[in-house]
Design brief:
4 copies of one chain form a homotetramer. By secondary structure, chain A is of the alpha+beta class. Chain A is built from 2 helices and 6 strands, in the order E-H-H-E-E-E-E-E. At the A-C interface, helix 1 and strand 2 of A face helix 1 and strand 2 of C.
Chain lengths: 142, 142, 142, 142
Amino acid sequence: MEVPDQCRISTDVRVMYFDTDAGGVVHNIVYLRFIETARTYLAIQMGMSFLEIERTGIHPVVTRTEIDYKRAAKLGDELRIDGRVVEWSGIRFWVEFEVIRPSDGVLLVKCRQALALVKMPEGRPVRLPAGFPASLALDGGE
Amino acid sequence: MEVPDQCRISTDVRVMYFDTDAGGVVHNIVYLRFIETARTYLAIQMGMSFLEIERTGIHPVVTRTEIDYKRAAKLGDELRIDGRVVEWSGIRFWVEFEVIRPSDGVLLVKCRQALALVKMPEGRPVRLPAGFPASLALDGGE
Amino acid sequence: MEVPDQCRISTDVRVMYFDTDAGGVVHNIVYLRFIETARTYLAIQMGMSFLEIERTGIHPVVTRTEIDYKRAAKLGDELRIDGRVVEWSGIRFWVEFEVIRPSDGVLLVKCRQALALVKMPEGRPVRLPAGFPASLALDGGE
Amino acid sequence: MEVPDQCRISTDVRVMYFDTDAGGVVHNIVYLRFIETARTYLAIQMGMSFLEIERTGIHPVVTRTEIDYKRAAKLGDELRIDGRVVEWSGIRFWVEFEVIRPSDGVLLVKCRQALALVKMPEGRPVRLPAGFPASLALDGGE
C-alpha cells in the first residue's frame, strides 16, 4: 500500500547537554523524546491535533516500542528524525522512525511503535476510521 | 518559631547515568527532580497525600525556586536531600533544601522554594489553615 | 539454563508528578527510566559497579529495547520493577523486566533489552567472560 | 550598559505530552529545559559554540537559578523564550529569561541565572575576557 504524503514527517533537533550522559553520548532514553516530538507533529498533520483530541476524547496511545541503537550521537549534533505510518488494521497502526545525522549521513537509531486510538476516559479502543490513514475523520467514537 | 518534626524530611538518591551529562557530572536541572521527590514525601508527611489532594482539590504549587550550585555530584554518588518548612504566612510558605554527599559531607546544592495552596480547577489561592504547618486540616477551601 | 540469584533484581518506585502527563497517567517514556534504575542495580549486583566500569573501561550498553504497554500507572502509585537476565551468547545478553503494581497485582509493562559489553573509548564490543552471567570477572577486555 | 544584539536570543517551543503533568499543565521543572535550550543558542551566538568549548575547555556553568512561576502553559501551547545577558563582572554574568505565550501575550515565567566560565577538568573559574559580553575571545584560560 502506498503511504500518503501526510503520513510522513521529518523533524530536526540539536543535541543539548541535558540530552547527553556521562558516557559523552546521547542517553538511550532521550531518542524516544526526539521520536515522540516527531510523532506528535505527524499526528497533527494527519488530523489528530491537540484540539481534535480534546474534542473527540480519542487519543493515540503507544502500545509497543521497538528501538535499535546502532551508533551514538554527541553533544551539539544536529539530528533528523524521519517517521512514517507503515501498517494499519482494525484498532492498531505502526509508525517507523529513523534518527539520522545529516552531516555524515549516519543512521543512529531505528524505531517502530504500535499505536491504538483510545477513547478517554473510558479507555476503550476505537476502530481506525474508514479511509485511514489518508483520512482521519474522527467522530468521537460513536 | 519552632519547626515541628513532621515539617522536616530526608530522602536518598543514587546518581544514575540519566542524571548526568557529557560534562561528567549531574546536570543542573536534575537536582530539582531530586528536590521534588523530597518535597512530595514532605507534603505527604504533613497531611497532603495524593488522596487528600484529590479529595480537596487543593494542590501545593511551586511559585518560586532559588537554587545555588556549589559543588558537582558524579555518576554513582549517593546523595541525601534534607528539606524543611522555614516560613509561612497568609497564602504562601517556604521550604529549604540541602543536597549533601554523606560520604565526604560536602554540601552540593542549596535551594529555597515558595509554595502556595491552590484550589483546582479554579486556580484560586487558599489561605493556609490555622495551625499551619503543624496542622494541615484542609477542608476543600470552603 | 538456571538463572543465578545475583542475576535477578527487584526495585520499587513511587510515581511522582514529573512522571505523569496531561493524560493523567505515567508517560510512556518514564517507565524506561524506572527500568534503567533497576538495570543499574542489577549490573552492580552482578559485578559491574560504577567503579568497576571506570577501572576496566567496559560499559554495558543497551543495543535494543522492546517494551509493551498493557495498563497505565497513576500519580502516587507504588510500583515494583522485576528484572532478570534471560539469555546470553557471544557479545550480547538479554534482560527482561516487568513493572507491577503490587497493591492490585496488575502487570503494567513488559520489557526486554539487549545489552553488549563495550570497551570505551574505542567502542569495541567485548566477549562475555567465561562463566557469564554467574561470573563477571572483567579484565579490561585484554 | 547597552546589551549588544548578539547577547539577546529568542527561541520557540511547542508543549508536548512529556512536558506536562497530571495537573494538566507544564511541569515546573520543564521550563528550565526550555530555558537551557535558549541559553545554549545564546552561548553559541556569543561565541561559545560546542566546538569552542571543546577547544578551550572553558564551559559556561550555571551557579544560581531564580525562577518565578506566574501562569501555567498547557498541552499544545506554542511558547517563546526570550533571553539576554543583563549583568557581568569579574568571573560571573547574569542572564534573564521570559517565557511568553504569543497567542495571548501572557507572561508565564521569569527567570534569572548566574553563570561562571569554568576551565575543565580542573574546575577553575576563569575571568571574563576583556570586552565581554560583546567579545568572547577565549584563549583556554591562559
